[in-house]
Amino acid sequence: MPLSTLPELTVAPMEGLTTVVYRRLHAQFFGAADRYYLPFVTPTREPKFTDRQMRELAPQANEGICAIPQLLTRNADDFIWAAKALADLGYKEVNLNLGCPAGTVTAKGKGSGFLQYPDALREFLDRIFSANLPIAISVKTRIGYSHEDEFGALVDIYNDFANGMDSLTIHPRLRTDFYKGDLRVHVFNRFFTELKMPIGYNGDIITVDDISRVRHRYKPLKMIMVGRALMADPALFRKAAGGNPATLPEIASFYEALFDSYAQAFQSRKNALMRMKEYWFFQHNLFVGAERAVKQIYKAKTVEDYQAAVETIFENFDLRNDAVYGWKKPL
Ligand SMILES: Cc1cc2nc3c(=O)[nH]c(=O)nc-3n(C[C@H](O)[C@H](O)[C@H](O)COP(=O)(O)O)c2cc1C
Q1: What is the pLDDT of residue 331?
Q2: What is the C-alpha to C-alpha distance for residues 99 and 145, in angstroms, rounded to an integer?
């Protein structure tokens, strides 16, 4: 990769948030990101995606955007059938999830749970990278399960597959950190130049300044992946490319469209309302002083209450230039 290449700005996979509904509308209202990583799909023993999974994976669901599906499994045979099926659907890249910290996932040795078993992980990677799959494989990982010093051994393993690995995106936290506390950036720094494959950086990027800082600090970097801050500031990537910040009317129309599309997808405005609360958990951090007002949204039991609470926010609070890190929790 030439030194002058700018890293791609990519949307982190987020279950329940970066869905087909969100991706389409985000691209339409704020311009498409370089790539959208899809929330994970767990391949089943039966080598066929379920109807529910196909709602996210069908090529028509992702027309006009660069969508990268993600698989969560520790079974190489399941990864292989699913990767082939994704290639048949027209995808050029599949991402392996080695980061999910949820107890139900790690208890089965999947996601960041897999990082506890380096030998099994090496065997798994050996199988999938030697399967001559007709699709590129990228990996998203944490730096370990419970200790920073696990990362050295993981780096050795990943480097052994560097030739075949499209990219390795690193979230510099341990599984035991979940999403809390400060990033362990010193670990990322220590190994950045030792890693032989294209590298992605993920974690706690909030502003355009953060994007520039990471761009300048790490070269060459293949991508900067952003999750929660993009839920707070959907125009973040547009701003990073020199475009305008989001306006109130833009956010208002975007949210109306999200609500309508979820209501249609769920055939229920009530269920759509629940989903919208999850977006507002992040979105209110782009408004000045809306921390208390957003509680009315969380409390809303009816669509009318929800709409009244949303209106209160749009009418009484200004937008900030940059979102603030309102979702940060100490360890
Ligand atoms: C609600 C939620 C759902 C997530 N779902 C996934 C997922 O399906 N796959 C994955 O690799 N990471 C998932 N993540 C992790 C994000 O992709 C990302 O690594 C994390 O939010 C840190 O990046 P950020 O600081 O830019 O948000 C999820 C995170 C959250 C908060």
Answers
A1: 78
A2: 9
pLDDT band at 18 (very low <50, low <70, confident <90, very high): very high
Indicate whether 3 pLDDT > 60: no
What number does the ligand 1 atom closest to the CA of 40 have? 8
For range 240-265, the mean pLDDT: 98
CATH classification number, 8-240, choose in 2.40.50.140, 3.20.20.70, 3.40.50.1460, 3.30.70.260: 3.20.20.70
Rounded distance between C-alpha atoms, residue 209 and residue 322, angstroms: 10
The answer to whether 11 and 227 have CB atoms below 8 angstroms apart is yes
Give nearest CA residue, ligand 1 atom 8. 39
Amino acid 279: pLDDT: 98
| Minimal-distance CA residue to ligand 1 atom 4 | 14
What token pair was written down for 35? Answer: 């790539």
Q: What confidence tier does 1 reach under pLDDT thresholds 50, 70, 90?
A: very low
Biggest alpha carbon distance in the chain?
58
What residues pair up with 202 in beta bridges, in sequence order? 225
Q: Over the stretch 260-285, which tens digit does the pLDDT of each residue have?
A: 999 999 999 999 999 999 999 999 99
Q: Which atom of ligand 1 is nearest to the CA of 140?
A: 11
Closest C-alpha among 203, 226, 201, 244 to residue 31:
244
Tell me the whole-structure pTM to 2 decimals: 0.98
Query: What residues flank ligand 1, with Cβ below 6 Å?
Result: 12-15, 17, 39-40, 70, 97, 99-100, 140, 171, 179, 202-205, 226-229
* Nearest ligand 1 atom to alpha carbon 12: 17
User: DSSP letters of 36-91?
Assistant: EEEEEE---SSSS--HHHHHHHSGGGGTTS-EEEEE--S-HHHHHHHHHHHHHTT-
Q: What is the mean pLDDT of the chain?
A: 97
The tokens for 103 are 């107890």
Domain parsing of the chain, residue ranges? 8-240, 248-316
CA dihedral 270, 234, 54, 80 (to 10 degrees): -140
